[in-house]
Specification:
about 20% strand; six-stranded mixed β-sheet; 15 strands; single chain; alpha/beta
Length: about 200
């Protein structure tokens, strides 16, 4: 790691810890978050494996090995090819799966048991794209190359197979949009609530 890259990496770690403390009222200190939050550990390991994945085809087996080691440690599987934005927070985390071509925006929150998966074995884009500030409730499955707009909320155990507009709340199996327009105040107020309340 170059000298210039080290401060950027430390800044990203600090941002991740601050995001966890903002999102989780149970977080009591930066030290606690850094040491015991498996969602953060999974994201940090993903950053390393993604760097290997994108650096060279020769390093891709090592990237996959590192991602599987992260899965073993945390119970969270993030493919090294997935693109993860800053300040992703995975709450509890166990059972989260993020596929190879998934793209996750900034300030996204995923609860345990979430799958960002595919519906086909074909090559190319086959996993979801999540916009900034999306919240995905516990056990939800977002499948295929769908787009979840900024500030959208996916309810717990929903199965999403179609695009969800920005600011919408989607619940059910298959998921349907229950609410589309939300004010900035409503979005801010819902940041700390489990989307299951919309069911």
């Amino acid at each position: 790691m170059t000298a210039a890259a080290r401060p950027r990496a430390l800044d990203a770690v600090r941002e991740d810890i601050a995001a966890a403390r903002r999102s989780d009222p149970a977080a009591r200190s930066d030290l606690e978050v850094a040491l015991v939050y498996s969602g953060l550990h999974a994201v940090w390991l993903h950053r390393l494996s993604h760097r290997l994945w994108t650096a060279s085809v020769v390093l891709r087996p090592a990237a996959r090995a590192l991602s599987q080691f992260g899965r073993f440690l945390t119970g969270i599987e993030i493919h090294p090819g997935a693109t993860i934005g800053p300040r992703l927070f995975i709450d509890h985390g166990m059972g989260v799966v993020i596929g190879e071509t998934a793209e996750v925006g900034a300030d996204v929150m995923l609860y345990h048991g979430v799958t960002l998966g595919g519906r086909t074995s074909s090559h190319g884009k086959r996993h979801p794209t999540l916009g900034d500030r999306v919240v995905v409730g516990a056990g939800a499955k977002v499948l295929g190359p769908v787009t979840i707009g900024e500030d959208a909320r996916i309810g717990a155990n929903a199965v999403v197979v179609h695009d969800v507009p920005a600011g919408a709340v989607a619940v059910g199996v298959p998921a349907t949009v229950r609410q589309v327009t939300r004010t900035t105040e409503e979005v801010d107020a819902s940041l700390y609530l489990d989307p299951a309340i919309y069911i």
